[in-house]
Amino acid sequence: MIAARRALLSVSDKRGIVPFARALHAAGFELVSTGGTFRTLRDAGVEVRYVTEITGHPEVFDGRVKTLHPRVHGGILYRRDIETHVDQANDHDIAPIDIVAVNLYPFRQTVAAEHVTEVDAIEQIDIGGPAMVRAAAKNFASVTVVVSPDDYDGVAAELAANGSTSLETRRALALAAFRHTADYDTAIATWLARDEGSLPSALGMQLAKVDDLRYGENPHQAAALYAPNAAPPLGGATSFQGKALSYNNLVDLDAAVACVAEFDEPAAVVVKHTNPCGVGRHSDSALEAWRLALAGDPVSAFGGIVALNRTVDLALARELADIFLEVVAAPGFDADALELLSAKKALRVLSVPLGLAADVPQLRHTLFGFVAQTPDPRIRDAAERWDVVTARAPSPDEAAALRFLWPVCKHVKSNAIVVGAADRTFGVGAGQTSRVDAARLATQKATGPLSGAAAASDAFFPFRDGLDVLADAGITAVVQPGGSKRDDEVIAACNERGVAMVFTGHRHFRH
Length: 511
Description:
The structure is a single chain. The protein folds into three domains: 5-196, Methylglyoxal synthase-like domain (Rossmann fold); 238-351, Cytidine Deaminase, domain 2 (3-Layer(aba) Sandwich); 387-503, AICAR transformylase, duplication domain (Cytidine Deaminase, domain 2, 3-Layer(aba) Sandwich). The longest helix is centred in the middle third of the chain and has 26 residues, at 167-192. It is 36% helix and 20% strand. It is an alpha/beta fold. It is elongated and about 95 Å long. The chain has a six-stranded mixed sheet with strand order 8-13-12-11-9-10. A six-stranded mixed sheet has the order 16-21-20-19-17-18. Strands 3-2-1-4-5 form a five-stranded parallel sheet, with helices on both faces.
C-alpha cells in the first residue's frame, strides 16, 4: 500500500488554500485536487496531482462527475482498524485519504443574485462535495475534514506540532462539517420551496451561536444569541461600545428598531419591556424628535432602550448622555458624538441599518410546537383603507395625529391604546386584559393636554365603555380597525360625544 499520506483539496472558497496546501505538503501529505482548486495550487507552485490521476477515469458530463469514484470515497471511508477493510483497500489499490478540505459550490450566493435563472441555480447544487464532506465526517476516527478556511491554521499547527490531528479536533471538525452540509441542503430546499408561499410546507434553518448571553429574562435562565449561518453578526448592526448585550436588551432593541422604522421623518422611540413608552417625530430634527419622545414618559425612559432613524450628532449625543439609558441605536453616529458617549462605559451604542428587517416567517415556541406567521408590514406599506365612519371627519390636525399614533399603537402589546398628538405620544396603555383598562391607563399616564388630543386602538372596541373613557378625558379623534358586532354602538357613542372616528380595516395585535 502507498505509504504517503494523502490530502484531497477541492474548495469553492479559496481563501487561505495555498498556504494551507503548503503546510500539508510540508507535513508529508501528497496533495490531490480538482478543477479550479488544482489550477490555483499549480499556479502558485504547489506540487499537486489532479484527481483523474488517482481514479484513472476522466471527468465526465461537464465535470458533474469527477470525484464519485471508489478510489476517492473508498480512500476516505474505509476503516483503518478493520483488517478486512485494509485488505480490500490493498487489493483494489485504494490509498487512504486522511485529510479532506472541501467547501461547496456557492449556491446561496448564486440564488441571491438578481435575475438568476433556474438552470444557473441548479448547476450550483454540489453533489460530489457534500458526498466527500459527509464521508470524511462519518470516518472522523481516522479522517480530518475541513470545511471552513477559518480552521486551516489550527489544523496546520496541530500537524506541525504533533504530526497528526487529535481525535477531539477531528470530532469537532466533523460536527462543523455536518452542520455545513445541513445548512447547504436547507438553502437548496428553501429555494425550491419558494413557490409554496411565505409559509411553506416545511421550515428548516441552521442557526449558529453568535454569543453566549449573561442570562435570559431572569438570572436563573441560560441564554444565547443565534443567527442563520449566512447572516452577518448582529444582523448587520455594529456595536461601538458598552457592556455585552443581554437577552432583554436584544428583545427590547428589536421592538425599538421595528417601531422607529415606521417613520420617514426624523423619529425617536424609547422602549421599556418591549413597549414604546415615548415616541416623537419632527419634520427635520432628530434632536427635537428625541426631546418629544422623552417628554412622552420621562419617568419610564430611565433605563430605557432608544432607537432613532437619523444619525446622532454631538448635540443629540449630549442630551442622550444626560439620562441613564441601556442602549442607543441609530443608523450612524458622528465621530464627536461617539467620543462623548464613550464616557458612559456601560452604555451600549449600536449602528443599525435603516433597512434592517426580517422577511422570514416569525417563529415562536409553544408547548404544542412552533407557531409561525408572516411579518406584519410597516403601516405605510400595507394596503389599509381608512374610512371615516362618524358624522364628523377628523380635522387636518386630528388626521395628522391619527396617522402618527396608528403605527405606534401597532408596536404596543395588546390590548393597546395610545393617546397623543401629531408629533408625540402622551400616554400608552399596554398589555391590558381589557380595552377599557388600556384606555384608562393611557389617559392616566398622559403627559400632555388631552383636550383635543387623538387616540389609537390596536383592535376594535367591543363596547362603548372604552370610547367613553377616552372622550371623558378630552379625546376628540380615534383610529381603530373596526370589525366588532357592536361597531354601530361605538359609532353612535362617538357621534353623541362629538368624536371623529376612522376605521382602517387592519388589526395589529402584538402578543
